[in-house]
Amino acid sequence: MGQQSQISSASLFLCSPLLLQSHCHPSGVTIDVSLDLQDKNTQKRKASQKWRTMPSQVSIGSHLSPWPMHASGQTILQNRKPCSEDKKMRTGNWQRQTLSIAKPRYLEQLENYLRKELLLLDLGTDSAQELRLQPYREIFEFFIEDFKTYKPLLSSIKNAYEVMLAHQREKIRSLEPLKAKLVTVNEDCKEKILAMRAEEKSEISMLRKEKVNLLKLIDKKNEEKISLQSEVSKLRKNLAEEYLHYLTERDARKILLADLNELRYQREDMSLAQPPGVSGEDVVKLTLALKMARQDLTRTQMELTTMKANFGDVVPRRDFEMQEKINKDLQEQLESLRADYDEVRKEHEMLLQLHVSTLKERDQFSAELQEIQRTSTPRPDWTKCQDVVAGGPVRWQVLAEGKNSDQLVDVLLEEIGEGLLREKDFFPGLGLGEAVPSFLQFEGNVENKKPTKKEVVEILKDAWQERLAEEQKQKFSDFFFHFLERHFGPKNAIAWAYTIFENIKLFQSNNIMSHFYAVLMGKMKESVYINQNENISQLLKEMTDVDSQNEGYLSMENFSTILRSTFPLKKEEQIQALMEAGGWNPDSSGEDLLEYRSLFLENNEGQSTLFVQKLWEQYMEEKEEYLLELKQELASKFFNEITPSKLREALITIDPSLDTQTLNAYISQAFQVTETELPEEGNEQMDEGIKQHIQSVIKQLQMADIRRMGPRREPEPTS
User: Kind and range of the H or E element at 427?
Assistant: First the structure.
């Protein structure tokens, strides 16, 4: 029943004009037309005639159907209260027939038209809602045109809505300037708020400063209050003493007055006892004088009591001014002493720092002096060697440039050994023992290939290039032998191995040969050579970047700046030594230009320049100093054996800037374990199982690339 009533009420608007004349009520109940009483029968006949002619009068070219005209009528009848069971049965039959009736064709066409028009609209624009009303306007126009009877009413409804919409549009347009003005006012208000906040911020800062000043003033007043309280307590003590003194005086005075009265009474008695002829003082006069004296005494006692009550706790102004002056003088002396104390404390701290640095320099110079005194010998005349060395004075000058006596001895030994090495045709094999390196294990004589130093250097450079290109999984000695097999064949590999080994063992003054020999014999990790060369390449790149014109020259000022930025931990003496090795003269004006690319060149025999040699020399010195500091730290805190946690603690102490990855790499190298095998912090049982001797740990670290990452924090001086 509820569904049928809704269908009937919703479909009344789509009924034909003749059906709409029946005036359907929204509730589904038919309301009879109120007719005039005189023409009631006539109107009933006309209505019945129109109802009978309705099926044949379909308007709009037979596009309108009477659906759900008869269904709505039946629905209306259903809402009435039935009188019998037969009516209920008829009502149920009418419901089934009504639900089976299809929707009118005209209604479907209008719905399809509305749906298509809405799909064609672009709802993403600002005027989408305005355009959305257009299809509904057209549908409403169709209704107005098709339903002629209700055309005036529907047109008036449409016009009323159009007028209201136009009024609303005009109202919106009139409000647009107010919206823009509102935005402007909003921005002005925000600017005013920001300005007020800035003013409040400055005012807050001023108030904070005033607060600090007031707090200082309060502290000063509190000090004055404490001083005055102490003075008041002192004066109260003096007052109590004076009060006791006055009490004593009062008692003595009372006793004295009693004695005087007694004497007076005795005198009066004596005067009365005298005969009448004896002359004496007037008794009335004496009585009057005594009375006046007693009145003066009473007045004086009252004044004295009033004075004690009013001024018992008051300090004399003279004493107050004197104490105030003393307090002011003491305050000025205190401020002066504080300023002097701060200045003296700063000077003391500076002197302590200077004392510590002086002690370090003294110890260093003392150690150097002892070493020089121990090893010093009369300086030989090295010019005698220029006639003995092959190449004469010119070659000897090249070999001896920038070298000390110890290095010149090595040069002479190399020159002598080079001659002996070329005289050998065969090398005796070292055998197959375990102590013999794998690339030298051979029994019998091995041919001496007799290459020049330049050829040996070229072979070593090729070996380094291949080593850097591969994954570096195999040992360096095994890689070296396989490299020789690939380049010279399996038959000649052992001969070249012995030849190159003897050459690099002899020529230790050559950087490439000495470093290759140290890596090959396990005295130095190959990462040391690789990382140091990368640092040298980075230094060259920094110089090239500064040389924007690509002229190949740098000023000494730029050269010094690049050295300090690339090596921030080097001391000033080390920077000056590098600059002197690069060609800087301290006596020059500082405007000289440096051909920086020549600092990184090598001669035909692979010998580096003095600048690169100085870089290597400083690196080794810094490494030795770092390890010596680590050894002293370990020896001062621990016994002979240490664990990874103790080494970690010592490394962090001497170098707080170490990151976790580098720290773990140092510890794994020192204890010869992988980083995954290192014990976690707090695992004492596993930590104790990897103990090593301090000397062994330092030896392992000497072979690795270990360097300081940051300055050591000096202990703060105690005041």
Answer: strand 426-428
Q: What is the pLDDT of residue 406?
A: 67
Predicted model pTM: 0.46
Q: Which amino acid type is present at position 588?
A: S
Flag whether pLDDT at 402 surpasses 60.
Answer: yes
What does the pLDDT read at residue 427? 86
- In whole numbers, what is the pLDDT of the chain averaged over residues? 77
pLDDT computed for residue 606 by the predictor? 75
Q: What is the full DSSP assignment across 662-678?
A: HHHHHHHHHHT--GGGS
Show the tokens assigned to 34. 């109120």
What is d(CA 636, CA 646) in angstroms, rounded to the nearest whole number? 12
DSSP state of 30: B
User: 27-37 burial, b if ≥16 CB within 10 A, otherwise e?
Assistant: ebeeeeeeeee
Which of 542, 535, 572 minimizes the C-alpha distance to 559? 542
Residue 515 to residue 504: CA distance in whole angstroms: 9
Cβ(647)–Cβ(634) under 8 Å? yes
**Reported confidence tier of residue 48, pLDDT bands at 50, 70, 90:** very low
- Long-range CB contacts (within 8 A, 24+) of 575-584: 577/614, 577/618, 578/611, 578/614, 578/615, 578/618, 581/402, 581/610, 581/611, 581/613, 581/614, 582/611, 584/556, 584/559
| Res 710 pLDDT > 60 | yes
**Is 496 within 8 Å of 488 (Cβ atoms)?**
yes
Token digits of residue 346: 């700063």
3-state secondary structure of 554: strand
The letter for the amino acid at 630 is: L
Q: Report residue 155 as tokens.
A: 């047109």
Distance CA 132, CA 122 (A): 9
Query: What DSSP designation does 382 have?
Result: G
CA atoms within 13 A on the CB side of 568: 4
In this prediction, residue 228 carries a pLDDT of 93
Encoded amino acid at 622, one letter: E
User: Is the confidence at residue 60, as pLDDT, over 50?
Assistant: no
pLDDT per position as a tens digit, 456-475? 889 988 888 888 888 777 78
**Which positions ≥6 away from 593 have C-beta within 8 Å?**
553, 554, 555, 556
- For the chain, what's the residue count? 719
- 660-673: per-residue pLDDT in tens? 888 888 888 888 88
Answer yes or no: is pLDDT of 80 > 50.
no
Q: Which helix (H) or strand (E) holds 224?
A: helix 151-273
- Residues 506, 456: contact at Cβ < 8 Å? no
Catalogue the long-range contacts made by 514-523 (C-beta closer than 8 Å, 24 or more residues apart). 516/460, 516/463, 516/464, 519/476, 520/437, 520/476, 520/477, 520/480, 521/437, 522/703, 523/703
Q: What is the 3-state secondary structure (H, E, C) of 581-626?
A: HCCCCCCCCCCCEECHHHHHCECCCCCECHHHHHHHHHHHHHHHHH
Instruction: Report the C-alpha gap between 190 and 196 in whole angstroms.
Output: 10
Three-state DSSP state, 252: helix
Identify the sign of the CA torsion 213, 219, 220, 225.
positive
